[in-house]
């Protein structure tokens, strides 16, 4: 089932997610719905807060980036095969030189900005079967994971912009929260919810 994506301005996007366990109600169904929602919106990642649930769950399918011919072959191969559910994730380490990349977010449509992130992360997480992993990722894969991880920490990519950029985007962000945006996927807008 395709779920509405929560728009910028909703308080759920600012909550630090709660850990979950295997008894979380209808978890497999939730994960399936999140994959379907993400693919419908042409995303490469989706976090539970983006569908209104303040829990530590996100998923990533980095395969669309594998088509970028400018990337080294080894990185393209890594991206092409990467589809993963992350439950109760914790970034243990971030290192390497920060680098800029143009990011967007399904909760903040029509806004794309260069964001600085560290090139390498080590993360501990569980998959959908609650098997625990500790992995190190770099490059674009590390970036996508960091972006989704920020969501379960109540952080948006716009928080990482300079104060000048934030001021320039203020009107656009306000319009998004009011539903004044043109998207081809379902969204839920905080300002419209209040008006009812």
Automatic annotation (TrEMBL):
Which InterPro entries does the entry mention? Peptide_deformylase, Peptide_deformylase_sf
Which cofactor does this sequence's record say it needs? Fe(2+)
**What class does this enzyme belong to in the EC scheme?**
hydrolase
In Pfam terms, one family for this protein is Pep_deformylase
GO MF term (any one):
peptide deformylase activity
Q: Which Gene3D superfamilies match?
A: Peptide deformylase (3.90.45.10)
Gene Ontology process terms (BP): translation
How the cofactor is bound: the record states: Binds 1 Fe(2+) ion.
Residues at which Fe cation binds: 105, 147, 151
**Which keywords does UniProt give here?**
Hydrolase, Iron, Metal-binding, Protein biosynthesis
Report the active site residues.
148
Q: Does the keyword Lipid metabolism apply?
A: no
Q: What reaction is this protein's catalytic activity?
A: N-terminal N-formyl-L-methionyl-[peptide] + H2O = N-terminal L-methionyl-[peptide] + formate
Enzyme Commission no: 3.5.1.88
Tell me, what does this protein do in biology? Removes the formyl group from the N-terminal Met of newly synthesized proteins. Requires at least a dipeptide for an efficient rate of reaction. N-terminal L-methionine is a prerequisite for activity but the enzyme has broad specificity at other positions.
Q: Which family does it belong to?
A: Belongs to the polypeptide deformylase family.
Query: This chain belongs to which protein, by name?
Result: Peptide deformylase
Instruction: Name the species this protein comes from.
Output: Zeaxanthinibacter enoshimensis
